[in-house]
């Protein structure tokens, strides 16, 4: 079965099914693998080295398992490709908190948001909750959609015994992302042990973050009749106003498109931080901004798919000549 057909089915499955809570998502198994390996490796004194071993083993095992799953069946390959995408689950999380806000239950909204973000939610007002939802959606547009899509398409150019590396590349990226979310912290426990995982995550997101912020999100804003000019302007102006080398790119494009300002005073684990601002504060946040942000998320996922299909075809033409029948 052709890769584009497989991936299109996987993409549609994500839009329809998302990530149900009852479903044993592969990322949970990757997380359990990381926890097991951490218990075995953290005891050694050379934390940077053992942390590097943790990253290599996790990514390598995930890659190999994914390859053999793809080898077993095209249906399995499609299914696991679908699990690497998170468009609907991101949207559902945002809508869930937003719905509680509309109902007027602030305490429940704070609790629901706490499942979505790592910042302190106890003392937030409506504006801070909406800002947090949108910052999370904009950042995870890369981690949950564009980056796994990028790696799946890159992997489709490589194969062994006719088995594409699309799934191993995409699932390998999810392993990298999960490593960063579990051990990539700059605290006393993980500053050394998680250093390699954090650096690999930075490198893996370097290209997808810039493609998303510089092209995909502004084009999505244009198609949705949002402020695409500001999306580009804020992207080029504020994309580096973030502690992460990659997260600010998509956040800047989102902020520009929506006409809001991200960043500012935020509490993490009981400590307040003044984060650099991203975007112009043209108006205050409103609950309706969440709906606009989710529309931009969905449109960006579709634009990403179209762009990668076009690039795949162009690269195929350059490498193999014009073989359009291979893509239908």
Automatic annotation (TrEMBL):
Pfam family, one: CobD_Cbib
Keyword Transmembrane attached: yes
Transmembrane segments annotated in the record for this chain: 49-70, 203-224, 302-325
Pathway(s) the chain acts in: Cofactor biosynthesis; adenosylcobalamin biosynthesis
Subcellular location: Cell membrane
GO biological process: cobalamin biosynthetic process
InterPro entries per the UniProt record, alphabetical: Cobalamin_biosynth_CobD/CbiB
Membrane topology, from the record: Multi-pass membrane protein
GO MF annotation list: ABC-type vitamin B12 transporter activity; threonine-phosphate decarboxylase activity
GO cellular component, one term: plasma membrane
Keywords: Cell membrane, Cobalamin biosynthesis, Membrane, Transmembrane, Transmembrane helix
HAMAP family tied to this protein: CobD_CbiB
Function, in words: Converts cobyric acid to cobinamide by the addition of aminopropanol on the F carboxylic group.
NCBIfam families recorded: cobal_cbiB
Recorded family membership: Belongs to the CobD/CbiB family.
Protein name, per record: Cobalamin biosynthesis protein CobD
Native source species: Fusobacterium necrogenes
């Amino acid at each position: 079965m052709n890769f584009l057909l497989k991936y299109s089915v996987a993409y549609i499955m994500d839009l329809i099914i998302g990530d149900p809570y009852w479903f044993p998502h592969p990322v949970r198994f990757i997380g359990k693998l990381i926890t097991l390996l951490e218990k075995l490796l953290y005891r050694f004194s050379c934390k940077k080295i053992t942390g590097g071993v943790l990253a290599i083993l996790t990514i390598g095992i995930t890659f190999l398992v994914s390859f053999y799953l793809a080898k077993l069946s095209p249906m399995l390959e499609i299914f696991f490709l679908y699990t690497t995408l998170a468009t609907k689950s991101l949207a559902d999380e945002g809508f869930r908190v937003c719905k509680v806000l509309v109902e007027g239950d602030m305490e429940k909204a704070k609790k629901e948001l706490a499942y979505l973000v790592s910042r302190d939610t106890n003392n937030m007002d409506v504006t801070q909750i909406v800002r947090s939802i949108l910052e999370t959606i904009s950042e995870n547009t890369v981690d949950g959609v564009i980056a796994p899509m990028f790696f799946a398409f890159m992997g489709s150019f490589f194969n062994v015994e006719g088995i594409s590396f699309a799934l191993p590349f995409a699932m390998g990226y999810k392993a990298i992302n999960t490593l960063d979310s579990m051990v990539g912290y700059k605290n006393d426990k993980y500053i050394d042990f998680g250093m390699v995982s954090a650096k690999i995550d930075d490198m893996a997101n370097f290209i997808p973050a810039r493609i998303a912020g510089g092209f995909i999100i502004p084009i999505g804003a244009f198609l949705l009749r949002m402020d695409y000019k500001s999306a580009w302007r804020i992207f080029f102006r504020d994309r580096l106003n973030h502690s992460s080398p990659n997260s600010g790119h998509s956040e800047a494009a989102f902020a520009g498109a929506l006409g809001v300002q991200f960043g500012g005073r935020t509490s993490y684990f009981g400590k307040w931080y003044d984060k650099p601002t991203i975007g112009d504060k043209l108006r205050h946040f409103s609950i309706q901004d969440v709906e606009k942000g989710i529309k931009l998320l969905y449109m960006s996922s579709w634009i990403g798919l179209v762009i990668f299909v076009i690039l795949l075809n162009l690269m195929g033409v350059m490498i193999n000549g014009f073989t359009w029948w291979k893509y239908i």
